[in-house]
Amino acid sequence: MLEKVEGVIIRTQNYGETHVIVTLFTDKVGKIGVIARGAKKPRSRMAAISQMFIHGQYLIRTGRGLGVLEQGEVIQSHRRIREDIVLTAYASYIAELTDKLLDEKTPNYFIYQQFTETLKGLTENKDPLVLTMMYEMKLYKIAGFAPILDYCLRCKRTDSINSFSIKEGGVLCKNCLHIDPNHVPINEAQLKLMRLFSKVGVERVANISVKDDNKNLLKSILEQYYDEYGGLILKSRKFLKQIDLLS
Ligand SMILES: [Zn+2]
Questions:
Q1: What is the pLDDT of residues 115-151, one digit of tens each?
Q2: What is the CA radius of gyration of the chain?
Q3: From ligand 1's centre to the CA of 178, what distance in Å?
Q4: CB 46, CB 58: distance < 8 Å
Q5: How far is the CA of 149 from the centre of ligand 1 (A)?
Q6: Residue 247 has pLDDT above 70, yes or no
Q7: pTM of the full structure
């Protein structure tokens, strides 16, 4: 069956001498793997449409097993991302995270839209770390391990919240923080920011101003949080860390 989908390439893998297996994150059918025949041959028309981060309209042949990429038309090439090592590092990270956390062939239009907005934000010079964290928190919800941020996860009160517990998966109030000796103290601004990141769409990133200290604290919390619950090793995170050390 031939199917027309809109999607972004979130992974590419060489297959044999000349082919490439492309993972597409699509609006209608979710995440799918398709083979782009001859995509490694120079001047192949497939090569032009099977690069990482390309957002396009694709015609795919589906059936049993791996689909086949028949044709494609570029909507956004995102060449700027591929040509900039910092942007590549961030985009690779969110692409890998998406690939790891979403089930195959399970569409989720909201995440799809947030993903394309994140890439767009990266090309528009919006804060890459803020974009990434906002997207990440949306993804954690879908993956089923979003932290509890609205109330103390032990006593459910909504006031006097002053710490985050990686182990318990959310925030704790001043009376309950003792249940996790490794809790991370957070102030009101940091709590507010965390809630904002988890609730507000990535497209509104320009309206959010974040102090470096807060940003770095949230980054460290999210990293530890992912290690605890995401559980899958991300190659792209190592790359992102190296880039971070350079800048
Ligand atoms: Zn409490």
A1: 999 999 999 999 999 999 999 999 999 989 999 999 9
A2: 20
A3: 10
A4: no
A5: 12
A6: no
A7: 0.93
